[in-house]
Amino acid sequence: MQSKILSRRDLAFLLYEWLDVERLTERPRFADHNRETFDGALDTAERIATDLFATHNKKNDQNEPHVVDGKVVLVPEVKTALDAWSQAGLLAAAQDYELGGMQLPCTVEKAVVAWCKAANIATSAYLLLTGANANTLLKTATPLQVERFVRPMLAGEFFGTMCLSEPQAGSSLSDITTRAVPDPVDGPEGERQYRLAGNKMWISGGEHELAGNIVHLVLAKIPDAEGRLIPGVKGISLFIVPKYVLDADGQPGERNDIVLAGLNHKMGNRGTTNCLLNFGEGQFQPGGRAGAIGYLVGQPHQGLANMFHMMNEARIGVGMGATVLGITGYLHALDYARTRLQGRHPAQKDPAQPQLPIVEHTDVRRMLLAQKSYVEGALALVLYSARLVDEQRTAPDEAARTRAGQLLDFLTPITKSWPSQWCLEANSLAIQVHGGYGYTREYNVEQFYRDNRLNAIHEGTHGIHGLDLLGRKVSIQQGALFRAIGEEVARMAARGRDVPGDVAQYAAQLDTAWRRVEEVTLALYGAGDMNKTLANASLYLEAVGHVVIAWMWLEQALVAAPALARAEREEDRDFYRGKLQACRYFYQWELPKVEPQLALLAQLDTTALDMRDAWF
Amino acid sequence: MQSKILSRRDLAFLLYEWLDVERLTERPRFADHNRETFDGALDTAERIATDLFATHNKKNDQNEPHVVDGKVVLVPEVKTALDAWSQAGLLAAAQDYELGGMQLPCTVEKAVVAWCKAANIATSAYLLLTGANANTLLKTATPLQVERFVRPMLAGEFFGTMCLSEPQAGSSLSDITTRAVPDPVDGPEGERQYRLAGNKMWISGGEHELAGNIVHLVLAKIPDAEGRLIPGVKGISLFIVPKYVLDADGQPGERNDIVLAGLNHKMGNRGTTNCLLNFGEGQFQPGGRAGAIGYLVGQPHQGLANMFHMMNEARIGVGMGATVLGITGYLHALDYARTRLQGRHPAQKDPAQPQLPIVEHTDVRRMLLAQKSYVEGALALVLYSARLVDEQRTAPDEAARTRAGQLLDFLTPITKSWPSQWCLEANSLAIQVHGGYGYTREYNVEQFYRDNRLNAIHEGTHGIHGLDLLGRKVSIQQGALFRAIGEEVARMAARGRDVPGDVAQYAAQLDTAWRRVEEVTLALYGAGDMNKTLANASLYLEAVGHVVIAWMWLEQALVAAPALARAEREEDRDFYRGKLQACRYFYQWELPKVEPQLALLAQLDTTALDMRDAWF
């Protein structure tokens, strides 16, 4: 039976036939690997996801975390699943051997992680926050901090969080007011110790009993000599603030001064505790006095830059989460459409004839094909981004590493936002395919839809990523990132031009679309007024996102078309035909949506800019 | 303080400034009415909705109906609210005086009903099903049936349902298998009595203790002499099947043979019980034997035609429900955007400056303006449809009545579907404006989003309405409905051409768009293969829907533009400016989405038609 979590066939296509991850094994870091070790990791992930994650996805949703005697209670299956994942070594799958990792390429690791996310997005959040936290510390922390906090996280003994937002500072991080004041007392081995006080909002995994400790990465401001906070992002520093202060042996000891102030009750993603934490209120008094003990990570006032590592990783993670929720919804809808009998063809006038599986209805196939084009396009983008991470880290020559970094930086807001928008739409279509049943909690798809709605909000809202793309990524390095993407698109379009049949036409469409993006981008920057340039940045994000996914589909078609010609087994031929048909769908139904968007942008439309509060 | 349920100002604009409902008072049926009586009904509705419906909307959602000792338990506020509504006479607001009604025009009644729906869609469902049930019976039932079932419903003593679907027959009603067999025993006053047996799914309001009785309107098949059911819709008849059989005095007596087989647990709309009912299982034995007692309504085998009255009314009701959920979400988002402080303008470089209300950010204004353009466009369409009902019923000359009926028939699938799609999108944007808070159940907007997702499913899915529009409404009466709409659009476009400024441009855009719809429709019917003609019917529904809403916006702009020129009070000028800006938004941002859709239709695209099951 085919899994309804993810398709191994599609993963194999993307990893081996398209992104050619086997070639990475030529590089020293991955020299011990081969397709068998990659598949072994995927097998393990599939098995644990299927047996331990998917099995409590609904239970998790229906038994939301709640507080009993000051402790957060979760269904016990959460810990079982997380422990199994860590014990199988999957939490550290991409880390160095020296840190207990498997040194898998990022591309393969992302495919591994896709399994637990698709099976249970809420439970997997604990793992992914922990991994991203550890990766951030590995970039900037001291060897002592790595020893004390990172190693236990990679072993699944401690879990991690990111504490950025505050009730008055969500998108506007420059307005945080959490204070970090140097402690007269030194920390372990003479490390400078701080005391933190402030309120942190939207902390996923912020409180629970799943691990021996929780390592909070906290943004806070160190006051100047007069006790004033420096306004803006320049005042922000990054701190490790553990739930339990470690004793001399590195074991969780005294309770730190961090209090759970309340759990948020979300529409979806209910299995992930999300809370308001109060730091330094004095309810706990580590070292005999109030104030949450923390340790500076990296340089003071560089907190946001340091945190950006975690944020960028988390953003690609959000894109992946949105994508795989889309995929599992699609696979559920497909399964339903193949088994549910309802109605007859329009030309069939005899009501005594048996009813058909609804997949036989063109409109149902349209909804399935739309889902396929969204979710497989999104998965391609996420894995392409992961492949860029591998290039950035391990490509033999520096120019290739730099270029991969540029492409990745440009794509990150799209990799985060496009799946959040369109794989949610896929989940809506999955409900629609199920009809009334899809709207009930007796089935699974309504939960995917609720879970997925979060993704356009957290790790930077849709609007913030629009500003990031148009206001920053397009223009930094004198436009080098933007040019790099244009070159990649042009290269693919040129390759496509020589392929017989529809692919050549797609290539031409893509080429035209990207040229139009270039024109429009110039027009926007010619406005001479940043308020005008950026007025419709969200629309720009959406339009460019669609063109990027069209590019991802052309990439896939360029692999599928010759593979179809070569394939001998009927099931392989069907698979490639499906890829080509989904590509056709995207070029026929989706890419044309971009032109009116670009036309609006090119006009420097001021409809929203001109609107006044009083007119609403 | 402005209500966050609905805007009275906007209702006044639509009812009095645009649809001119005061002119209806020149007609005999409405002769006792005037603007004061209309406003009086709206005042009452607003008060009850605000005090008794909105106040338990969240409680209703969080305390879902459940079964205790075989009875469905609801929060007590539901009954209080429903009783207040009935006792104020609002349930029968549009009915004849003779039936205890107020004889309000349908247009005004729909505006009245909008209040309770916007305040609490789940609780109001009981009223609306009851009203639609009563209206259906008033069309076709015998005087005795009216006396025994309709009068108590209009007084709020009995509630009504519609029982169409079965587990194996949802969209495909022709496949129902519920049987109705003549009973040897006669019913009251010699009425022919039937015994029904079968399972009915998705019955909203199907079981509860809110009223003295539940009047089920049930579709069933009368077997032929050999006991066989006639395949297809031709075999369907309509029956009244009360929960309690009435005694000789018309009071609820013996329990009928109808058993609650299970409650559905929905994503939203949780306060409305929705259930599977088993008829004729024998658990209750009215008159000493098994079989649910029912009474034929109208002629045998005409059940679907008779039920269509209820379905059409319910479809406009669904459109209204989707619309007002969009409106209340928009008003909540607007309120939040005016009070939430976050961030600064792009040009503001000083982070020490205070944060702004987020309505000052262009992207937030875009999201609010999009919501305004969707929800006020949808409300215009729903009230325009209601105005057509008034014309159809009370216009002095027959030609006008016929034409109103044609316009209404054509618009019904759009009035049902367009708000279900776009006011859901408005609710998504309302969440987005709230950021993370919007995703939590501590706020209200996530519920509106969950509630609204139902509307593209029930009373005919989106796909079914696409087929209805393109496969039926376009072609019946030799295309007379389609031509009638075209003439109305052309008339408005012609009027708009003479208005100075942007309105003339909108009129030209609308005219072009409709001509394109005409061309495309001809191309689709020229395919010579109904499978091809109808392959993309959902897309046709969406494209034509957008053009229709553009028309509704032109109608509003044609009122608002001169009113702005005349207005003296600043708040009136702001209101009209807002209308014109929302119209501008729709013509700049929305209507252009239609051209690629129409281009795809004109090509007779077969991407979905060609897709094979095996390729997924």
TrEMBL record, chains A, B:
Domain Acetyl-CoA dehydrogenase-like C-terminal: 488-611
Taxonomy, superkingdom: Bacteria
Protein name, per record: Acyl-CoA dehydrogenase
InterPro entries, per database record: Acyl-CoA_dh-like_C_dom, Acyl-CoA_Oxase/DH_mid-dom_sf, AcylCo_DH-like_C, AcylCo_DH/oxidase_C, AcylCoA_DH/ox_N_sf, AcylCoA_DH/oxidase_NM_dom_sf, Diverse_Acyl-CoA_DH
Family membership: Belongs to the acyl-CoA dehydrogenase family.
Keywords from the UniProt entry: FAD, Flavoprotein
Signal peptide: none
Known cofactor(s): FAD
Domain Acyl-CoA dehydrogenase/oxidase C-terminal intervals: 302-466
Pfam families reported in the protein's UniProt record: Acyl-CoA_dh_1 (PF00441), Acyl-CoA_dh_C (PF12806)
